[in-house]
Design goal:
Arc Repressor Mutant, subunit A; alpha+beta; two-stranded antiparallel ribbon; 16 helices; Alpha-Beta Plaits; 3 domains
């Protein structure tokens, strides 16, 4: 009979310990304390047992406010885990967004909190995330996360007249020109909005960022580095897929009209082209129109409508200046004219346009 090596025995014990840790029950009091410490909103606490592992919960309850490798090892030991695995534990939990780094020297960590965790783990381990919930539950988590992040911004916008974010809508050519002027490599990541909502069928790997410091997707090890030319080609690809380009100085979001929090926020706020701020409006040459209907299919703002004579009618007041229609009009009947908007001007939202589940 073949004898088990010491290394093999240790691996087996470690595996058994991991299983035991996962199966060890957590009392309701512990869940309540974890929810408070990890800032889990009350309206999603029914999902905690499927969002977080037992080890994550017990670690969060036992850890100090800030901790290094040594403190992490001591906490793990107190939980019956191998303290030698502290560095790997920190690496993994940081990567999936359960922990944040505190300092650039990367010697101290802290609990990231629910908002950060939901902005990271479901994005990068999307299949695992979606396998744990029903479609209805996924929509519920997404909807509550959207409102938790946007509703305070909406209140500020309505009370103070300030834009919820600094995002602006750029046409394809404007975006390409901006990338050239920036002249730096970028990082391509999966879209957090589309990863949570996931209903539109558009590509997910579409968010472009120029940030790579601690606690970014790039630093956590999830992003792909792109050259200037690769970044421009990616944006062209996203444009062909029907995604609108919004920029805020450090990020190029390539947004759909169904999942994107910027798009959904615009509909809820009723801000139209005033936020995210547009710089163009569509112009239509009826004589050149060949009636192909491509603009009707490309526009998710319902600017275009088919007419009986195989042309289209145009409601330019709904245009947000993205240029998706003009970029692909085969007859050149659509162009984007420069426009000047006053900025944020909140209106009463149209309930028929607000997304719901």
């Amino acid at each position: 009979m073949r004898r088990e090596t010491r290394a093999g025995a240790r691996e087996r014990v470690d595996e058994e310990r991991d299983v035991m840790t996962e199966l060890r029950p957590i009392g309701q009091g512990d869940w309540d304390r974890f929810a408070e410490r990890y800032s889990v909103p009350e309206n999603v606490r029914q999902y905690m047992a499927r969002l977080f592992s037992t080890l994550q919960v017990r670690f969060a309850l036992a850890a100090p406010d800030r901790f290094g490798v040594g403190e992490t090892g001591r906490v793990l030991a107190s939980l019956g885990e191998d303290p030698a695995g502290a560095a790997e534990f920190l690496r993994k939990q940081y990567k999936i967004g359960f922990l944040d780094l505190v300092d650039e020297a990367q010697t101290s960590w802290e609990l990231a909190g629910y908002a950060t965790f939901l902005d990271v783990w479901p994005v990068w381990e999307n299949e695992e995330y979606r396998s744990r919930f029903t479609p209805e539950e996924l929509r519920d988590i997404d909807w509550k996360y959207f409102h938790a992040s946007f509703d305070p911004r909406e209140r500020q916008a309505r009370e103070q007249g300030v834009a919820p974010t600094e995002d602006e809508v750029y046409t394809l050519q404007e975006t390409l020109d901006w990338i050239d002027r920036n002249g730096r490599p970028a990082y391509l990541s999966f879209c957090d909005c589309r990863s949570l909502a996931g209903d539109c069928g558009k590509p997910r790997e579409t968010c472009i960022s120029y940030r790579d410091g601690i606690n970014t997707y790039a630093h956590r090890g999830w992003s792909r580095r792109l050259s200037v030319e690769q970044t421009k080609e990616a944006v062209r690809k996203f444009d062909r897929a029907g995604l609108m380009h919004t920029l805020n100085g450090t990020t190029i979001c390539n947004c759909c009209g169904d999942c994107c929090y910027l798009s959904r926020g615009r509909e809820q706020l009723g801000s139209g082209p005033n936020w995210p701020l547009a710089h163009h409006v569509v112009e239509y040459d009826r004589e050149r129109c060949v009636g192909c209907g491509l603009c009707v299919r490309r526009c998710w703002r319902d600017v275009f409508e088919r007419t009986p004579d195989r042309k289209v009618s145009v409601d330019a007041t709904r245009c947000v200046g993205c240029g998706l229609c003009a970029n692909t009009c085969p007859a050149g009947a659509l162009t984007m004219a420069e426009a000047s908007y006053p900025g944020l001007r909140p209106e009463e939202p149209d309930p028929s346009r607000v997304h719901s589940h």
